[in-house]
Structure formats: C-alpha cells, structure tokens
Design a protein that fits this description.
By secondary structure, the protein is an all-alpha fold. The protein contains ten helices and no strands. The protein is globular, with a radius of gyration of 19 Å.
C-alpha cells in the first residue's frame, strides 16, 4: 500500500506523517502530565519514554530534548503568524494587523483548554524553558520585523518595527500566561485583545 494516502481531501499528509504526528502528540500528552505532576526539572527523558512504552533512543527520533516537547517547532508558529500578517490589508493599522495575526495563531485549531493551560504553566516553571521561549520569540521577531517595517514611513522604520513587534510578542506572552492561570473562563483571545488595547495609544 502506498504511504502517500492523505488524512483527508487536500491534507497532503502521508500515512507515515500522520503516524508520526500521532506518536508526537501522545509523547507530548504523557510528558506534560509528568511535568505538571512532578516538575519539569525532575522528569527525565527516560521516564517519559518508559511511560510512552518506548526507549529513550526512540523518544529522540521525535524530540531532540525534553524542552522540545513543550516548545514545539519554533519556526512553525512564526511562519503561521508571518503569513497571517502578510494577508492583512496593507492599509490596516500595523498594530491591528499584528493583533489579528496573533489571534489567528491562538485560535488556529480546536483547543483543549486544560491541556493548553497546563502546557503554559509548565513553560514558565523552568529556566531552560523560559530561555528556549525567548529564543522562539526572537526568531518570530526576525520573521515579522521586515514585514512591519515595509508598512511604516521610512524614517527609522527598522527601529520602530523592531520595537512594535517585540511589544506585540510581549502582549501575546502576557495574555497566554494570564490565561493559563485564569479560573474565570476568560479566553486567550479576550486576554490578547485586552493586552493589545493597553498599548494601543502608544503604538
């Protein structure tokens, strides 16, 4: 049987890719449960692998390190937001385009809120994860800044674009961190909108 069968019309995924994604999702679910229960620093790759019924060597075929289970593919999210921003109307205020691009990222797929919140709480619980998250945000900034600069007047466009993009990413980070600890049913999108609104008069 060919491995090019897709998961649905236009999906473009092979059976091998579908299987790989399913295994990655299962490892992620197990790892996040262990991190939340025992603490990120206390859980080893060997323990995650054992819970998943595989060897540590097999684990590393899917994730280079345990940090990658939480962080995911840094470029993937950045590429999504960059494409969303590029699709926004050229005459739309840049700050609004960034907010709507990040909102599209936050709502891009059906979300298991409890799992998402647990992942965010794990993310801010360890120094190594916070460092990797900063690296991801810097990568996103490099992707977005040229697009923002192209929509600004020439005077200091690159500098202002960098400042605006970094501020937008900070709004996303604060919104998601607040959402992870919220118990009143406030959604990530609502918190994102409120975060961006806080800086709107200055941007």
């Amino acid at each position: 049987m060919s491995s090019t069968t897709s998961s649905g019309p236009g999906s473009g995924q092979t059976l091998r890719e579908i299987s790989r994604d399913a295994v990655r999702a299962r490892i992620t679910e197990i790892a996040l449960e262990l991190f939340a229960e025992r603490g990120f620093e206390q859980v080893t790759v060997e323990q995650i692998a054992a819970e998943a019924g595989m060897s540590a060597r097999t684990f590393h075929r899917y994730f280079p390190a345990k940090e990658d289970v939480v962080i995911g593919d840094p470029a993937h999210g950045g590429e999504f937001v960059r494409a969303a921003f590029a699709d926004r109307p050229a005459d739309e205020p840049v700050w609004d385009s960034l907010r709507l691009s990040f909102e599209a990222f936050v709502t891009r797929a059906p979300r298991d809120d409890e799992r998402g919140k647990r992942g965010m709480r794990v993310l801010v619980s360890a120094a190594s994860l916070r460092a990797r998250s900063l690296e991801k945000h810097l990568l996103w900034a490099r992707m977005l800044t040229p697009l923002v600069a192209a929509r600004l007047p020439d005077d200091d466009a690159a500098l202002r674009a960098e400042i605006i993009v970094q501020a937008a990413i900070a709004c996303l980070d604060v919104a998601l961190t607040t959402w992870a600890n919220a118990e009143d049913g406030t959604t990530a999108s609502e918190l994102l909108e409120r975060s961006f609104a806080t800086l709107r008069p200055q941007v």
